[in-house]
């Protein structure tokens, strides 16, 4: 990480920043542990980063983030920014009919959109297009979040990564509270043994917000508690989602 910090500083495009900006009034950047992270603030304008709202950068040591850059599983992505976010690891999408769940590359292209921003707002110049960009797989990142959550609840010290919210978003957007998706995830081997009990408990406690549904008979919008059954019909058999 020392080399990355050095290159960012000498580029004069980023400056070290000790202050942690608040997000929606919440100081979610606060790291209370003895393992220090490093924050940066952009020193440039009219670039992809500032155009897309990324004016700050934060580097976590692997020991703090519970994720090894060299050892974790990775997936190659076309760019560091996503104009229309898609899920590259399609095996996490457990509904064959794709009635709900995250978007995939083919569905985005079907609407005439692109998952990457235009060339003007790409994260790298055309001269650096040959350099690959990798991010952790969902399996690596999800287990990292579970490890972080356990460390936070065990010590009471926050690392400022919003771990609880990220775990809820994993469940929300991947529909892990839907029985076929839940059973597949827990039986797929993607959750490490040390994290299994915590993942089961996190899913059990998750409560999806009521959905707004159009009543054909009442011809009015109504809130329904069971998102999957009331909006989409009876749930599919668990084994029909296992491939």
If you had to describe this structure to a student in words, what would you say it looks like?
- The chain is an alpha+beta fold.
- Helix content is 33%, strand content 12%.
- The protein has 9 helices and 7 strands.
- The chain has helices spanning 2-10, 48-51, 62-65, 105-110, 138-155, 163-174, 179-187, 193-205, 227-232; strands at 14-16, 38-42, 56-59, 74-77, 133-136, 211-214, 221-224.
- It has a 3-stranded antiparallel β-sheet, with helices on one face. The protein has a two-stranded antiparallel sheet with strand order 4-5. It has a two-stranded antiparallel ribbon with strand order 6-7.
- Helix 5 packs antiparallel against helix 6 (163-174).
- The chain starts with a helix and ends in an 11-residue tail after the last helix.
* Helix/strand order: HEEHEHEHEHHHHEEH
- Cα-based radius of gyration, to the nearest Å: 20 Å
Summarize the biggest pleated sheet.
3 strands, antiparallel
Task: Quote the distance from N terminus to C terminus.
Answer: 40 Å
Q: Structural class, please?
A: alpha+beta
Helix content: 25-40%
> Mean pLDDT across all residues, rounded?
78
Strand arrangement within the widest β-sheet reads 1-2-3
| Low-confidence region ranges | 22-27, 235-243
Give the CA-based shape: globular
What percent strand? 5-15%
User: How many DSSP-defined strands?
Assistant: 7
* Number of helical stretches of at least 4 residues: 9
């Amino acid at each position: 990480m020392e080399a990355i910090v050095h290159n960012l500083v000498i580029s004069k495009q980023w400056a070290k920043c000790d202050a942690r900006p608040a997000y929606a009034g919440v100081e979610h950047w606060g790291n209370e542990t003895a393992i220090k992270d490093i924050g940066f603030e952009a020193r440039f304008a009219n670039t992809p980063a500032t155009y897309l709202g990324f004016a700050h950068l934060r580097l976590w040591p692997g020991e703090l983030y519970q994720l090894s850059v060299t050892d974790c599983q990775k997936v190659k992505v076309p760019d560091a920014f996503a104009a229309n976010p898609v899920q590259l690891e399609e095996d996490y999408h457990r509904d064959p009919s794709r009635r709900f769940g995250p978007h995939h590359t083919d569905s985005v292209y079907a609407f005439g959109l692109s998952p990457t921003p235009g060339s003007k707002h790409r994260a790298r110049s055309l001269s650096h297009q040959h350099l690959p960009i990798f991010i952790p797989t969902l399996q690596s990142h999800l287990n990292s979040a579970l490890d972080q959550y356990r460390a936070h609840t065990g010590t009471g010290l926050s690392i400022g990564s919003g771990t609880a919210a990220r775990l809820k978003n994993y469940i929300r957007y991947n529909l892990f509270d839907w029985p076929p998706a839940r059973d597949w995830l827990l039986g797929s081997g993607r959750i490490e043994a040390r994290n299994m009990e915590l993942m089961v408990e996190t899913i059990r406690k998750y409560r999806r917000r009521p959905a707004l549904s159009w009543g054909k008979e009442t011809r009015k919008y109504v809130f329904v508690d069971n998102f999957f059954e009331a909006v989409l019909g009876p749930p599919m058999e668990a084994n029909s989602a296992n491939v």
